[in-house]
Amino acid sequence: MIIYNVCVTLPRFLSVTVQCLRDGQFVVVVAGDSTVPRLNLDTVRLLEDGDLATCAPVAVTGDFAVFQFPVSACGTTMTEEGDYVVYENHLSSAYEVAVGPYGSITRDSIHELSFQCRYYGSELVSLVAEVNTVPPPLPVDAPGPLRVELRLANGDCDAKGCSDVNVYSSYYSDADYPVTKVLRDPVYVEVRILERTDPNIVLVLDHCWATSTSSPLSLPQWDLLVNGCPYRDDRYLTTLVPVDESSGLQYPTHYKRFIIKMFTFVEAMVPLKESVFIHCSTAVCHPSATDDCQRRCGRQRRHAPEGLQAAGRLL
Asked: Does residue 17 sit within a domain?
């Protein structure tokens, strides 16, 4: 009998080991760094749990989850291909879903692995492992009619101890879109007024949200900023980045910046392998003795300035 012990190494830290034993058993080892962000190994399960004593992991450590089970158990399917008998099973991970009034998202890694053992007579002759990947999103660029632009900083920073100001030193160009991000990666968003030199006007963000299509009215949606403040029902709160004279900008009041953690939309408890579009409604405010145009999060909302417009950018 020939036995192949195969370690399948996948791109960018994705590591899975699959073995087919002489007595007709699968052994599958999944590493915690199989995904970015790191996979929660406690959530990895076979296609069918079946008998927990047989189909549950035989060991889970901080770095690995180990499964060992008969090729005929735990939801394994059997097919015949010519002279070969093929046994195939599937591993996947669970993920936490945050539910909002207009949509649902997740920031947990989504791990799926299909694996096979092929038998010819009494010889195990090959093994195949496959991981499903997310296709890249399609590009789109939709600035608002008042020449308000939403763009993404690329986060590149050569300085040691890089600050929020430093990561806004360079931006993705139009040719870079769509931008691919890993779940929970920071996304550096900037909204700015174009072609204005009046130092007395202030850009105000009213509402920023994300959709799965280029239409700002489409569903599902996920709030990022509400009344200019981080959406409180998000476990990973949006971070507002101050823009003042220290930023080196000629007109700092013409800019607003914030950081979100990357997510994907979920429908019917299934993650959508699609694009994420970011939209913001904006206003231009003139400071006065009674209104300094600054939103104070956690306090009662001031009156909304006039002239709300929208800007959008695809991830």
From this structure: yes
